[in-house]
Each structure stands twice: as structure tokens, then as C-alpha cells.
Amino acid sequence: MKLELQGITKAFGGFVANDSIDLVVEPGTVHTLLGENGAGKSTLMNVLFGLYEPTAGRILIDGEPVAFRGPGDAMAHGIGMVHQHFMLVPVFTVAENVALGDERTRAAGILDLEQTRRAVREVSDRYGFNVDPDARVEDLPVGVQQRVEIIKALVRRADLLILDEPTAVLTPKETDELIDIIGQLKASGTAIIFISHKLREVKAVSDTITVIRRGKVVGTADPSADATELASLMVGRAVDLSLGRRHSDGGDVSLEIRDLTVIDELGVPVLDHVDLDVRRGEILAVAGVQGNGQTELVEAVMGLTSGTSGSIRLEGRELLGRSVKEIINSGVGYVPEDRSTDGVIGSFSIADNLVLNRYDRAPVARGASLRPSIIAQNADEKVREFDIRTPSAQNTASTLSGGNQQKVVLAREFSRELKLFIAAQPTRGVDVGSIEFLHRRILAERDKDIPVIVVSTELDEVAELGDRIAVLFHGRLMGIVPGNTSREVLGLMMAGSTAEEAFAEADRSGRSTTDPDEPQLPGGIA
Amino acid sequence: MSSPTRSPLQRLRRSGALVSVLAILASFVVGGLLIAFTDRDTKEAAGYFFARPTDMLSAAWDAVAGAYAAMFRGAVFNYDAGTFLGMIHPLTETLTAATPLLTAALGVAIAFRAGLFNIGAQGQLILGAILSTWIGFTLELAWPLHLLLVVLGALLGGALWGGLVGWLKARTGAHEVILTIMLNYVALNLLGYLLNNALQREGSTNPVSPVVNPSAQYPLLLGPEFRLHLGFLVAVAATAFAWWLMNRSTLGFEIKAVGANRAAARTAGIDTFKVTVLAMVIAGALAGLSGAAQVNGTEKFLSESIAASIGFDAITVALLGRSRPIGVFFAALLFGAFRAGGVTMQIATGTPIDIVLVVQSLIVLFIAAPPLVRAMFGLNERRGKKNKNPKGAAGAPATVGGDQ
Amino acid sequence: MSTRTLTAPASTAGTAPAAGTGRRSLVLYSAGALIALVLFAFMSPGGTATFRLSAASDAFQIPALPVAVTPAGWTIALLLLAGTAYVLWLRRSGRGVPGWVPAVFALLFVSGVLIWMVASATNPSISLLSLLTGTLALALPMVYGSMGGLLAERTGVVNIAIEGQLLLGAFAAALGGSISGSLIGALVSAALGGVIVSSLLTLFAVKYQVNQIIVGVVLNVLVSGLTGFLFGTLLSGGAGLNSPPRMPNLPIPVLSEIPILGPLLFNQTILGYLMFVLVAVLWVGLYKTRWGLRVRAVGEHPKAADTVGIKVNRTRVLNVLLGGAVAGLGGSFYTLVSVSQFSRDMTAGTGFIALAALIFGRWNPIGAFLASLLFGFATNLQYVLSQAGTEVPSHFLAMLPYVITILAVAGLVGASRAPAASGQPYTKD
Amino acid sequence: ACGAAPEEGDGPAAEEIDYKACMVSDEGGFDDASFNQASHEGLLKAEEELGVQVLDAESTSTTDMGPNIDEMVQQGCNIIVTAGFMFENLPLDAAEANTDTKFVVVDYGYETVPENMRTLNYNTAEAAYLAGYAAAGYSKSGKVGTYGGGQITTVTDFMNGFANGVAKYNEDKGADVQAVGTDTFVGNFSDTVKARQIADNFIADGVDVIMPVAGPLGQTAVDAVNESSSPDDTVVWVDTDGHEYANGGEEAVLTSVMKKMGETTFESIEQDVNGEWKGGAYLGTLENGGVGLAPFYNFESKLPEGMQSELDALKEQIIAGEIDPLA
Ligand SMILES: Nc1ncnc2c1ncn2[C@@H]1O[C@H](COP(=O)(O)OP(=O)(O)OP(=O)(O)O)[C@@H](O)[C@H]1O
Ligand SMILES: Nc1ncnc2c1ncn2[C@@H]1O[C@H](COP(=O)(O)OP(=O)(O)OP(=O)(O)O)[C@@H](O)[C@H]1O
Ligand SMILES: [Mg+2]
Ligand SMILES: [Mg+2]
After folding, report:
1. CB-CB: which of B5, B270, B384 is closest to A13?
2. Which residues surround the ion ligand 4 when the cut-off is CB under 5 Å?
3. What keywords were assigned to this record (chain C) (predicted)?
4. Check: CATH 1.10.3470.10 for C129-386?
5. What predicted TM-score, i.e. pTM, was given to this entire model?
6. Which of A304, A385, B27, D83 could serve as A299's disulfide partner, Cβ 3.0–4.6 Å?
7. What's the CA gap between C184 and C174, in Å, rounded?
């Protein structure tokens, strides 16, 4: 199927999110859309999928103009979409989710899920998805949920598949698998629109790249262009992707974690006798596939888990058993992995979000009273300092894009005297321009001689930031390796090898155990 | 949210004062139609509508205008009264009627902001009334001290009943809607039991308590001609307190945070257990205060119907006031006016009092749906200026169920 | 806080009330067993409690069931102690508590209370049959109310207006029945009455996106005022507008002769039979059909439903209207079965109890049905016991249903999660 | 909608006089099928027969009661009737403050009644006693029952009198008729489903005479009896004559315990209109006819031989003070 978008314009009130965009997608090709957060990519795709009505412009399929009154029409024309935020009903099984809207029924509208199950298994087998049609979606890892979304589209025989940031929550291995799948689909003639902020994979899958900035197409790029070039085109200014950071060996051990075990509600240990040290002035990156205990690790340090045993000492002081508030007040800064759920309160103003965990301490509070003028003043400062894009700090946080919400969280945490800083998935779904900014701020914190833990499923980020890298697998610590360890070794460890095994394996296969991109500096403190 | 740059007045204007006025107008029109259609004279005149249509129209007009004029005379200003005091008497009645509504609604509003749908003001009020009655007639103390104890007792009674809900909710996850509904009935039966036993007036076989001692009563503010009592000023003070709590205090910040996003609040170190309990304790205490206003202000003794429908009306008042203390204050005045005006309207024009309920509810609905009102009055709906976040604006939890 | 939250708010499916686990239920088990030991065993009033199994008017008389109170009390207390020990053991060995345990435990405890209370009455004999038939009758309007609520809430529209739907249903049945003189007319009007309330709910809550709780709360007041007003001005004029036809019981031949079950299940009015059908159909519909899948999707994740071509707001409107019809039909029970005329505020808060039953039953038709039955049972128990002349003051007896509900909700059921999108209006651009 | 327009000056049927008779109800409202309604009918009768102007107001809560009375005074009422104990001292205070206005207080009394006030109370237990006696005599099953709306004196007086009447019958006849439900209360005066269930429980239990004392809920017992499988089941109605008053009362109502609030209210107004106001505390008894037992109508023939004369004798004894119906 050949798709053409001609002069698509979409305005929300006075705000033009898409400004007469033209786009042609050829069958059997991968067409990538590249752009900053808020550039208008998702909006365009929602228009294409019939979710939004375009303000102007038209859509042609195989040269014929079409009009979609809803996603039903789009699907009828062979368009499938995997949304940036998954459109799965969490309490439904895979089969129910796939069936939804396209149900097979017996008499009297009784569902015939068996047919759907069969279809799911077929697709799943064909592409090696390995998805159980009867699993409940909310119990599935995000990577599998992603596949369910793709199955949904494929079962409906999509000729054009839109993938809006499909890799934002995937592990490297899952990403590689997805890239494979895209290859297979392409080979079978499916047209694909691909959206991602990760330039490495964009370069890997794309046939054509269109760059969008502020709702307008600003040009096309060749997949062979180098990453910095793509980034600059996207952001509209020169972007320096290499942080130019120096390695740090850190100072004294500040955070000591001993024998940390977390048992979940079902009695299963999700963190299993973990020992970790973090030094002043170093970044310890914690890598691991989602669901292997990283979340529990940071939540345990923050006092957010129950069923925790062992010991967590910060500068000799035991944190375990203390309330979240005490832990925060003892100088732990925390960026939770899900900013919109845990990081900010959407209906609160940006100003209030900037004092969310020190509202009851001087100078923000005097006794039991808040001091609005201080809150406002603080907000003005932080908005300026962290370049939070908003017309007013009194706007609610929900009006911010993801990247800007993340800046709010970071600004809030950095406005206290910290003794430890923990960031979980600090740049998930954030565009390269913002990533650069956020990374620099985290490094700056390290350079203030503060111990930092960065948890990420993103190998690039882990390698970029980590002075040392700890890898968790099934709740156990697989080992702690130097910051310049190669992706190969990290990948093996994330799959369950211990550090020694992984190094041995990599050596055996004759590949480098260190990351060639990483400047190899011997010790030395910044 | 603290938004120090905007004054309440500006906000009122921005929220579309015009629409509010039109909403009230529309509600009165609908109520007027009901009155007209059921008015005896109008129906009579309708019988010969084609013979002399003006009769019916003027009869209808008389019925409606008469009813509303009477309502105005009963609630705001009695232009027919001979004396100045008589003229302002209705206003004081409005304030008196608004007093218990105000405090109970503040309680409901605060619970709303914590994400709790508190249908239990009724029961909390009853517990407050029980304690303040008991303190009011058993103790013999000097005036300010005795009254103070009564008020404390009312606060305590309500706080216990509300706190119980908060505690059960926080501890077991039991749904507050179920808990509050059930506890209302438990409170009512407890009241019935006590009125037939420990609290029964000596020598009486009816379920009424003794009259509370004068030292335990709210003194009348404007002399014996008026029922307005000190409880009104206490309610005003409670409004000020609630305003401070919700807009200026750290606890209010916590309450709002928990109500808006429990997970984020917890991550930020807020003790959601404590906040849930405290929000319900405060809500209950405020409702308990209404109990004191009823017993020690207007009624002087306890009976089974002491709570009337105040606890339920309070929900509407809180919602109409968008769960903001200032808004609640004005909403309570409006409802107080209806209560006071309804009395006069019913008597002077024979219009059934139920019409007040109808008009009241329509006002709330219309005010909450500005586009509908604009459409009704042919005002062009401004495109793209959609009510972006109606549930936030209303200040009520959007859901009954689910731990947000 | 976990990976899950990345996609959409997690939520539980509509499963029936699940077994209580966790520490608090252990406390509850121990407390229950202890109370049983003290009350039923040590403080046993002794004597015999008699449970009659057929009505005085039944053709077929079954001998009454005498229970020796003290031995029964001891047996129950010991069984409960054993049950507590079993639960403790299960938890010690890290195993879950099977679903039947709390059910059996609760049943034993309730039987104990029942025997104890009957035995302490002046006339230690009650009719088990009328206790049970009454349970159904008292539950009936609640069941209709909660099913009506369920239809709305499953699509994500909070329905606080059940009370109003029942009341207008009752009113409309009286008016429509009187005018048409037929039961069909009465039932159709009743359904229409509920639909009227629903259409206001959808107008404000779906079209104008007013907070659904506000609309519901206010609609109840509106209906109370309106029916009160019309009752005073229209119905009580002596024009015969308040004399609806009666809905007779339709005993099913043969089946209704079965002892106990017959009078209980097979001697109902149309509304009574329809209640069972309704619960069953709703359960099947919700969990086994295309319609149900779509409805649940709309209530859990409207955007996801929208992206697969389901019309979210249309589904909502239709379901709320249907729910109104169901609740309205339930309201007709008041004026067609219970009593022969409409009176002011005659639903007396049943709609709120129905709402509680819906939540208690975790938005599941069968759960809500069982919750309503529990409530009906506790209510009727109160009357049956006071009729037998129990010592307990009537006001405390009257608290029974409410206290039992609180205990059940806080002790056994715990948190119940609403459909995830409940209360949130759905818009798109 | 057609018809001739009336000519100007066409007045109402009754000769209107310059006298305002007013009434304030308690929360029950004027259609409570009980004391409010009965008293209100007295008021309406005065409107019709005496030509007085009528103003009335329903109180939606206790809080409205004071303002309602005040407003009546403001409106220049000549006489103000209040019904129910919930009014407490409000009428008394108002009477003391407005000595030109007459007050009629139904179902409540004061130690000293001012001159411009008349309190109307009724010893309903006397008549209920007779009803209990008759019911016991009528009962084939040997079980009769009563239940109330709420636990208040005006209700429990009926119930206790009734139970004592049954006991009296047992004593005199050596019978063993049970009176059940003397502690059974619906808990309110509005929930018909609950009230109906109590009646159904009674019937299932073999109770064949039911006396509901629950205002509008009494109708549920009549319906239950009319729909029960046994034609012998009956109701003892209260306040008014259920034979006429209840829906389907002809077939169901054995007799009624009448509390003649309408008559006495009317009479009070009439007195004042005619300048014969007496004031003071009135107590309706069997003796003065303020309470009484309604006829048995169709059920007359189903009563045991000699019942009527036994009732007459009992009545005499009660009047003579030989029997205390509440003992
Ligand atoms: N429903 C809406 N109403 C108003 N404005 C919107 C709406 N949806 C998106 N926008 C605005 O349109 C712009 C484009 O948003 P869009 O989601 O398309 O960006 P994007 O390119 O997908 O960004 P990202 O890379 O972060 O996913 C943003 O500035 C956003 O604020
Ligand atoms: N209905 C709406 N009205 C106004 N703004 C909206 C609306 N819906 C979304 N937005 C805005 O659209 C912007 C972009 O939304 P989007 O979800 O695409 O964020 P994002 O930048 O992609 O973040 P993330 O990558 O973390 O998802 C946000 O500023 C959001 O507040
Ligand atoms: Mg996007
Ligand atoms: Mg994004």
C-alpha cells in the first residue's frame, strides 16, 4: 500500500501541532519520523489513524483520497498502529485485547475467543513472538505487551504499520528482536512508519527519514548520516552527543547496601541478598532487563517497599526501616522511573511540584504554614535554570511534555543538599536535546562529590553515565564491572551470566570486552 | 494549589459569573414552569384557554412571580415589613439556615480534596450532636467554658466517626462510600437508642433529650427577635480555617497531593495513611460542628431528626462550591437562602416546598455545565475553549471506587 | 511504581469477592473464633432453638428443625477455632487461603449468631423460610438498582443516581399503571422513569462532562423534589392517578411445591423471576459476549477501545440508558408489589445501599447480587428476631445489616477497584 | 381545553370569612396518612364548612418548624395548628409571644397551657386495648401482631394498648393468643419494602390480625393481607377508619383504632370562629369520643358470639377507670 499525506494541518485551539505536512510512504519500506518531543509526530499519526480529524489536508491510499471518521475506518483501509502509550486493556487477556473491536462470535454474540487464540498463535509463531494468548496483559513485561500491540495490528492484516516510539521501553535485546520483525514485515511488503528518539536504531531500520520540527517538515535525511548530524537536524542547533565526561573512581564509600532482600506480596524474592557500595563522586549505573529488581532496589533505598530485609547505610546511618520522608530528609534525591505517576502531580502547578518533597521544611514552610511567595520565587528560579518550557510556573504540570516534566523532577531534587542521588530511567522517551541536558545535570551532581545511582534499561545511557556498572538478573547481582565494559558483556550479564562468565564468553568469541566509544581513562578523580 | 497571584474575585469572573447568573435564571424558569403548570388558578384558566388565553397567562405569571417574590422576601429582604429589623429578618434566617450546612460542607469538601467521597457527614453530625447534647445538659459550668466544652465535644464526636472511616479505609482498603453510608445508619440507630435511654428527657416518653443548659448554648447575636447565633461566626471562622488549611498549610498540601496522585504523594514522602485518617478526622470534626450548631444554636435539644438532611445537602453544597472553602461559603449561603425563602414561599403562596429542591438541583447542574447554559441562551459557544478538566475544576473525586 | 504503570492504570477484573488474605483477616478469624467461644459456648443461653421450614399457610408442612443450643454452640466455636488454626497453618507454610475458607467461616459464624440470638428470644422459634423469602424480597430493589448501576459503571460512568432511578421508577409505575390500567403499561413507564434520570445523567456527565458524582448526587435530590411535588399536586388529587394495578405472584406449577426451594424460588412475581434472569444474563453478557468485552474495554481503557473503532461515548450513553431502564423496573417493585400506591421518598435510601452492594460485589453482577442478598438477609433477620421477642434493643438490631456490611467490607473484602476509567469523561479532538 | 370563561366576581362556593386558619406539619407532611394528614383534614373541613381562609406549611426538618410558625404569625393567622411532638416548646413560646393568636397543638402537651392555646392529646391505648381484645377474639390462628414505624410514644401507645387487650382476652377466656412484634419497628415511616416484609413475615408465621402503626406504611399491611393466601387475614388500621381510608380496606380491615384528630381540630377552629374559644388541655378518650373503635363492617359476622357486648363492657370499665390499658 502506498500512502500519501498532503498538506495535513492539525490545530488544537490556536496551537498548530501539524503545519501542512506532506509525506509519502512506499510499500515495503520503513519511513522514519524524527523530531523533538512535541514536534508533532504522534499527532500526525493520530490524524492518519483516524483518531484526530485533520484541520486541513488529505490522505491518499494508493492514489485514492480517503476520509477516516474513526480508527475503525483506518483499520478497514489496512492501517494498523502501535501507539506510543500502549492501547491495551490491562485486565484483559492477550486474546481479549486482540479480539477487541474485531471479535469472532458464535450465535447471540457469544465470543469465540478460540478463533482469536488461534490467530494469535499463528502470528506469534510466524514471527517468533512467543506470546501466550491467555496471559493477562497487566502481568506481562512491557516488551511482551509491545508484541501484543503488533499482533493486534497484524491479525487485522495491516498493510501499513505505524510504530510510535515502540522501543522507548524495550531492552536492547527486545529492540534487536523488534528490528528483526520490522525487517520481516518489510520483506512481506508491509509499509512501516517508525518513530523513535534513539538514533542508533533509526539508522538501523530506516529506508527514508523525515525530520519534523515544530509541526513542520524541515527536511529528509539519509539513514547513513551520522548521529550527530541527525540530532542537529532534529533540534535545529548543533548537538554534542558525546558528553566529554571524565571517568571517576569516586572517593569514600558513602552508601553501603548489605544483604538486601525484598520479598513481594506473593512471597517471591524480587531482590535477593544484594551487596552494593556506592562511592562519593561516582556514578554507579544499574543495568538489567526491566523486571529484574532494579525498580525494587531503588524503591527499597527510598523506603517505598515492604518486605525488605538487610541493611542500607548512608554515611553510616541505617536507612532501612525509616519512613520515606526521613530518607528524603536525610539527603536522598530521587527521580522515579515513571514520572507521570510517581514523579509529578499532574493537577498541581509546576511551582508546587517543584517543592513536592520539601513543602514542610524551611524556607518553604514556616511552622504549619506554607509560604507562597517562596514557592513562587523558587519556581521562577528553577524554570529559568532548568529551561522548563512553560508560559507560567502556575500552569499545571500535566500541561508539560514528558521531557519537561522530567526537568521539573530533576530541578526539584537538585534544589536540596544531597548526600545521595538516585535516578531511575531518567531519560525514557525524552528527545536527544533534552537527554543531553539531563545527562549533563546528572554529571554535574556527581562532580559535586555526591554518590549517584542511575538505573536504566538503556545500554547507551548506562555506558554513557556509569563509572561502574552493576547488573541485576532475577533479583541477584551478576557483578559490578567497569564503566567501559562492552555492550556484549553487559548483554550477557543481563541475560544471567556472572561477570566472570560474561568476560570469558566474550573473550572466547574474540570480541572486545570494552566499549570502543568510551574514552579509556585510567582512574583519577575529576 | 496555591496560586497567590489570582484573587478569588478574579477567579469568579474567569469562571464565568455571567454563566452562573444565567444558570440560576434558567433554573428559576424551569421551576416557574412547574409552578405554573400545577397552580390551581392557572389550571382553571387553562380550562377556557381558547376563550380567554390572557387569563391563563396572567394566572401563570401571578403564580410564578408571587412564589418567587415570596421566596425573596423570606430569604433576603422583606420589603413588606414595617420595621427595619423586620426587613432584614429574612437575611438573618438565611444565615442561620446556612450555618450547619456550611461547616458540614466544608468537611465534605476537604475529604473530597483528599480523594475521599464522604457521604458520611450525616452520621458525623449526629455523633457531634450527641456529644454536645450530653455535655450540654449534664454539666453545670460557667458560660464561655461550658460552650467551649460543647464545641470541643462536637468536634470530637464528629472526628471519631469520620476518623473511623479514614482509619478503616487506610488500614483495610474498604471503600469509603460503603463505610460512610453504613455508618450513617449506625449513627442514626445509636441516636435512636440513646434518646430512648441515657439521653431521654426525664418525664418524657418521646425520644427527645433534655434542653441543654443556657450556659451551653450559642448566644444569640442580634437579640431574641432573631435566631442568628454565635454558631454562625464559628462557621465563618471554620471557613477561614479551612481556607488556610487548604491553601496555606502543609497539611492541606499533603491532603491535596494524596487526593490528586496518591503514588506521587507517597514517593514524595507524604504519609498517605496519616493524611487519609487526618482528612477524615477534620471532615468529621467539621460535620460535628454542625451538630453543635443544631443542638446548641437553633434547636436547644436533641431529637432523632437533628441532622435533617444537612449531611446530604452538604454534599451538594460542597460540590457547588467546587470544594473550595470560599466557594463552599457562598454555596452554603445560597442554600440557606433557599431554605429560609422556601418557608415564606410555601406559606404565602401555597407553592409546595419541593419546588425548592428542584430549583436547587437545577442550579447546581446548570452551573456545572456552562456550554449547556450558553446554548440555552443562544450565546455562541466559543470553539476550542473546552472545559478542559471538568473533574479537577469541580474538586470532587471523579470516581467512586478505586484507589486513585 | 512498577513497569505496569507505564501503560495504563492496572486494574482487577470483575471477579467475585475473593478470599481474604493478609494479616487483617487473620485477626478477624481469631476474633471471630474467640467471640464464638465466649458467646456461643460459654455464654450459651441453653435450651432449644427452633427453625421452622414451612409457612403456616403452606399445604406441605415440613417438621420444624430443633437445635440444641449449647451443643451447637460448642460445635461451631470449636469448628471456628479449628478453622483459624488451619488458616494460621496455611500462612505459616506460605500457602494461600482457598476461597471457600472465609465463606464457610462466615457461614458458621452467622449460624452461630443466629442460633444464639434465637435461643435468647422469648419465643425461641423462627421461620427460616420467611427469613429466606424475605431476604430475596428485601434484596430485590437493591439487585435491580445495583445492576442498573453496574451497567453504567462498567462503561466508566459513575452512577450515584440509582436512588433517583428507583424512585422515579416507582413513581412512574404508579402513574403509568394507573393511567393505562395495565401491568405492561406500568412496567414500561417504570423503565422510562429510570431512563429519564439516565438521560439527564448522560446529558450532563457524558455530553457536558460535568463531574459524574455531582450529577448523580444532584439528580437524586431533583427526583426527590420532583416526585414529591408531583405527588402533592398531581397524584393525591383523588383523580385515581395513584392506584396502579397489582403484580401477582406467579407460582410455577410443580416446582413451587418443592419444600423450601419451591416457595423460595418458584413463587415469585415477574420482577422476581426477572431478577434471576437479569443477574445471569448480565454476567454472561459481560464476560462472555462481544457486547460485554466492548463494554468492559470502554470502562477500563476508553482510549484503547476507541483505537479499535469502538464508539466510546455511544457505548456509554446506551449503557447508562439501559441501566436506567433496569433500575427503573426495580423501582416498580415498590408500587406494584410492596404496596398499592406511591408515597413520598418511598425508596428510603435503598439506592445508596445498592451502590454499596455494587462496590462490595466488586462491580460483578454475581458479587453485587450476593452482596444485596447479604444485606437483605441481615435486614430481615432483624425483623424476624424482634418478632420472636429477642432481648436485644430494637435499635441495635436495626444496626445489624450495616455493621455486618462494615465488617464484611473491612474484614473480608478489602479494597475493591472500580473500572479504571470510572468517572473520567472521554473526549477526543 | 375549551369552555366558557367565568364572569368577573365569581367567588368560591363557600362564604368566605375574614379568618385565617393555619397549620404547620412536622416532617411527615400533610400526606403522612397519620396525625398530620388527619389534623389537616380538620383544617380543610373548616375551610369548606366555615369559610375560613387556610394557610399551610410542611416542615422539611425540625429546623424549619420555628420559622414556619413565625411566618404564620407574620401572615396574620388567627389560629395556628401544629402536629406532632417534634414541635416541642415552639408553639408554647409563640403562644406566649403572640397572645392574640390561638394555637392548637396536636399530640403534645405542656404543664401549663396558656389561654390562647389548646393541646389535643389522645389516649389511643384505650381504643387499641379494645382492638387487641377484639383481634384476639377474632384470631383463628391464635397469633396476632403489631409493628411500628419508629419507637415513639404516639406509636408505642397503640402497640402496648393492643398487646394488653390481647392479654386481657387471654385472661378472661383462658385463651393463649400470642401478640408478636411489640418491639418490631420498621425504623422509618417511608420504606414500604421493609414494612411489607414485616407484614409478610407475620403472615407466614400464622399471624392473622396485624396492626401496623406506621403512617403511610400501614397500607403495606392491607396489601399484604389482601394478597395473602388466607382470606381470614386482617388488619387493624389506626388513626382513621381504614374501611374507607385504606386502599382495599373493605376486604382487609377488621376494625380501626380511631384517633379523631380531624374532628377535634375542626372543633377547635369552629369554637374560635364562633367566639367560643375555650383553650386548655384536651384529652381524647373513649369517654368523650376522641378515640374509639371503628365499626367491624363485613367482619361483624366473623367475630365470636357476644364480642360486641364484651367490648362495650370493657369500654365502660376503661371509662370508669377500672382498667388501665397501658398497665
Ligand atoms: N490533544 C491535544 N490538545 C492540545 N495540544 C496537543 C494535544 N496533543 C498534542 N498537543 C500538542 O501538540 C504538539 C505535538 O505533540 P505530539 O504528541 O504530536 O508530539 P510528538 O512529536 O509525538 O512528541 P514526542 O516525541 O514527545 O512523542 C505538542 O506541543 C503538544 O503540546
Ligand atoms: N487534551 C490536551 N490538551 C492540551 N494539551 C495536551 C492534551 N493532551 C496532551 N497534551 C499535551 O501534549 C503534550 C505532549 O504530549 P505527549 O504525551 O506526546 O508528551 P511527550 O512529550 O510525548 O512525553 P512522553 O514522551 O513522556 O510521552 C504534553 O504537553 C501534554 O500536556
Ligand atoms: Mg509522540
Ligand atoms: Mg513522547
Report:
1. B384
2. A 429
3. Cell membrane, Membrane, Transmembrane, Transmembrane helix
4. yes
5. 0.89
6. A304
7. 12
